[in-house]
Q: What sequence folds into this?
């Protein structure tokens, strides 16, 4: 994988559903992976910065896992709420890429009440 | 502590014109990065400034240039605007060597 890819591109779920999406990134020269939550007309909000293979992080109902050997990360949302509706972006940093974030295209989540 | 502030929030320019976008970094942050988000895509890295010098550049032509000031604020300048330059421009500040970034809410540029 040369680029950062996210799937699905968009997702509609009902309030209360749990959901997850995927971020794939280049595994060679991996340094760090960032997850952001981005509501329309607002700033991207940092969720997690992950660096270690097997890392798991949690923030309220949102959690993320990291597999640096195979180059993927999962973001999970438990019991989705309408306020979770946003675009979720992941971005990787390569070891030789300075501080350059390489973003995926995002997953747009819409939670229906 | 203040976050990252970008100005203006929206603007419309004509093809061939020049534009300057501004970014005030978060207090305590010494590095500023600029990203372009075209419709339907993820943000793309333009360049980063640290100690008032360019410290990394993405795949953007020289007509995209920047400045960083002693107070760590920054400008993005784009000359000879093209229609494809229409996008959301995001600024992110950070501390050099640290992993966290704080983003502004962006400037929406429309080139007609």
A:
């Amino acid at each position: 994988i040369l680029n950062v890819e996210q799937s699905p591109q968009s997702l509609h779920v009902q309030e209360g559903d749990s959901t997850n999406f995927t971020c794939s990134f280049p595994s060679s020269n991996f340094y760090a992976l960032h997850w952001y939550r981005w509501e329309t007309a607002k700033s991207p909000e940092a969720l997690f910065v992950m660096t270690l293979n097997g890392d798991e992080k949690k923030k309220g109902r949102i959690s993320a896992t990291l597999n640096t050997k195979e180059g993927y990360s999962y973001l999970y949302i438990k019991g989705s709420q309408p306020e979770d509706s946003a675009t979720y972006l992941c971005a990787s940093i390569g070891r030789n890429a300075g501080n350059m974030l390489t973003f995926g295209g995002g997953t747009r989540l819409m939670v229906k009440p | 502590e203040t976050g990252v502030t970008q100005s203006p929030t929206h603007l419309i320019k004509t093809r061939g014109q020049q534009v300057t976008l501004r970014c005030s970094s978060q207090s305590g942050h010494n590095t500023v990065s600029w990203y372009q988000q075209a419709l339907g895509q993820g943000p793309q890295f333009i360049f980063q400034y640290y100690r008032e010098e360019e410290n990394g550049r993405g795949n953007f032509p020289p007509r995209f240039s920047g400045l960083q000031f002693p107070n760590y604020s920054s400008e993005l300048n784009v000359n000879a605007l093209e229609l494809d330059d229409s996008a959301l421009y995001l600024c992110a500040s950070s501390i050099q060597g640290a992993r966290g970034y704080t983003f502004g809410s962006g400037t929406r540029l429309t080139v007609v």
